[in-house]
Amino acid sequence: MIADLRELERRTGGPGGARRLCWGEEWRSARELLSELLAEVGLEAERDEAGNAWSYLEGDAEPALVLGSHLDSVPAGGWLDGALGVMAALGVLRAWREAGRRPPRTLALVDWADEEGARFGRSLFGSSAVAGSLDPAELAGARDAEGRAVAEVLAENGVDLQQAPSAQSRLGRVVAYLELHIEQGPVLEAEGIAAAAVSGCVGIERHRYRIEGQAAHAGTTPMDRRRDAALAAAEAALAIELVGAEAGGMATTGHLALEPGIATAVAGVAELTTDLRHADAEVLAAMLERARAAVEEAAAGRGCTASEQLVWRIEPTRFNAELVAAARSACAAATGSDRALTSGALHDAAEIARVRPAAMVFCPSRAGISHASEEDTAEADLAVAIEAYGLLVGRALSG
Amino acid sequence: MIADLRELERRTGGPGGARRLCWGEEWRSARELLSELLAEVGLEAERDEAGNAWSYLEGDAEPALVLGSHLDSVPAGGWLDGALGVMAALGVLRAWREAGRRPPRTLALVDWADEEGARFGRSLFGSSAVAGSLDPAELAGARDAEGRAVAEVLAENGVDLQQAPSAQSRLGRVVAYLELHIEQGPVLEAEGIAAAAVSGCVGIERHRYRIEGQAAHAGTTPMDRRRDAALAAAEAALAIELVGAEAGGMATTGHLALEPGIATAVAGVAELTTDLRHADAEVLAAMLERARAAVEEAAAGRGCTASEQLVWRIEPTRFNAELVAAARSACAAATGSDRALTSGALHDAAEIARVRPAAMVFCPSRAGISHASEEDTAEADLAVAIEAYGLLVGRALSG
Fold first, then answer.
1. Fold of B203-314
2. Which of A41, A175, A65, A54 is nearest to A113 (CA)?
3. Burial class (CB in 10 A: 0-12, 13-18, 19+), A225
């Protein structure tokens, strides 16, 4: 499987990182490699209406236990994000095929389309279509950085945006879903654990705040007469950090922009976005209240006003308790640790978990880096994580 | 004079504010109005090599006492910034002309070219050429927002950029320089003073700081493992505010930008500019040291590094003591107050003060607003300030 990943990197990577941007040429070439590898063991890939690729290895029972992840990447991404889970799923199918045995239940490999949403801003495109939560109208006006409309780009890939929700019919052949992925964070590396069960995905509250003060001349406006939106935003960002730290969650001010935004003017307007994450819905709601209050207090303290706009929100996802227990036990067999952690990032498994039992296994990310060419995991850790994932699939098949 | 200003506003203003951007059509039309008004009293305007317009009313002695300011404005500016001083100077010449008397010393009106620097980023263009501090090489690569080269735009206005420094020869006909201007800040309005002497202009230290941390995933990077450049910048901006407040000067963070600058990523890089101003050179130098230390401390406290780049600096300017005393006395006669203040903004007078005695008179700005369509001063205050300026010119002529 590691050789498959290296071959994928050779075909679609480079010094700047992976470039398997969904719906583009290199993403198609990644899928071509997958088809070649499937063909080597006598399997074919079929497309659904949302562009997901499915490959079935018939077993004694239906519906299928589905294994997979995504081949698409961010524009300058890493070699493992998504690709690891697809190649690990392929490895499981290949192992059954090469053993010449029929599995006790049909196994399916799925390569979800456009997990990253890096091109049109809508993550989890293919998996949400299958889960029944994709509304084509939400995406209809989206254009990529070159100004091309989403419907046009999808059509080039044989996908009719309006028909994408029909992919939901694939659910009829899904009994459960298992995904191996890199952690994309530093926890497992710090704890020296090569594979760990994932108990769910955090909920997210993402908001944009606009703080309005008064633009003024930097040289003629006394310090005590200013209504400086930049400084109100600075105080808000620092208060929001505490909201995350004190709740044991994450709170990030990743975007902050000033108007007029020039050296010689006190900022009249500051815009910031906050991204709050927690595994517990009630704690997340409390974090949002505290963040709101912090922004309002910072604004009011400087004679500014603040307004809020929802960017996006999602409830926390709890993975299926039995599958999580099976994943902990499989990881414990492979690593000696039954650690379970919550994913701070979203994954296709979170979409599928809405409608079917699902679980994940994580392996470490070097220095916690992902979505960058430096993304890496030691081969020894990859091997352990692939083993743990294989054990989990075995337990799910026999369970 | 107020009628002249209203006519100028009628010809070149509008709901969005004044649009006398230097070297453009409306700036030329403002100068046309000035020529018409000069012609009404039998005076002509001549251009120097830097595009400044000069008009001389011959008197008994040479060199001339020069009165003036600038007709150019920022793209959406106010009706008084610069225009007030030009029309007040015209008023003084007209008064002598209409009285049919020859002044004891030649009086000159100057309309400086491109005081604002709003188009090519170089303020005080015309006055620095006359003062001998303009280096055409510094400007050579500059382009305006439409991508047009400075040399091309100047040539359309009959100015050869390379020859602009030759305007320095006009200095031979300057004995001293007096300028009336709006304050562009809130101090005089707050103190209820219609006209005040200006004792000099602040010095400015303008720097760009780049804080480098580590870009990271907002969902997978624990709060205590981040090297968040945005939060380091927030702390730096708040510390820099204190540097200004505690030194009795100004300290502004007007520009702050993050990379990658998206909601879902901890910022790996933050760039901010600080603009520090103080009338005392030693205090200004100490402010710069404190600001530097504050940025470095904020960066180091979060595992980030900081680097500094000079954007621009200018020493404080002290106006000529005798002329400042004359301005205080003239203002006291008109208003009852001999208040003198330091200008936090730069003016053409600061350039001329390098090489000739110079002084200024300020009148209030409503709510301290300038460089905006809301810029205004009560007509009663304008009248008092014009009277004080006239008294000052009289004292300088007889001094």
1. Alpha-Beta Plaits (3.30.70)
2. A54
3. middle
A319 secondary structure, DSSP code: P
User: What is the distance between the alpha carbons of residues B311 and B209, in angstroms, rounded to a whole number?
Assistant: 10
CB within 8 Å: B263 and A275 = yes
Q: What count of CB pairs under 8 Å joins A to B?
A: 203
Return the bridge partners of A266, or none. Answer: A216
Tokens of A275: 């991204």
Residues of B in contact with A276 (CB under 8 A): none
Across the range B121-138, mean pLDDT stands at 94
The token pair at A146 is 């070159």
Q: How many CB atoms lie within 10 A of CB B165?
A: 18
Instruction: Please indicate whether, in this complex, the C-beta atoms of A222 and B343 are within 8 angstroms of each other.
Output: no
Q: Which residues pair with B257 in a beta bridge?
A: B271
Which 8-state DSSP code applies to residue A362?
Answer: E
Domain residue spans of chain A = 2-201+316-398, 203-314
How many CB atoms within 10 Å of residue B155?
13
Residue B319, token pair as written in the block: 């106006």
Q: Are A299 and A305 in contact (CB under 8 A)?
A: yes
Q: Which residues contact A262 (CB under 8 A, 6 or more apart)?
A: B254, B255
| Complex ipTM more than 0.85, yes or no | yes
Query: What are B248-302's pLDDT values in tens digits?
Result: 999 999 999 999 898 989 999 999 999 999 999 999 999 999 999 999 999 999 9
Q: What is the dihedral of CA B19, B23, B27, B28, to 10 degrees?
A: -150
CA distance B215 to chain A (A): 9
What homologous superfamily does CATH list for A2-201+316-398?
Zn peptidases (3.40.630.10)
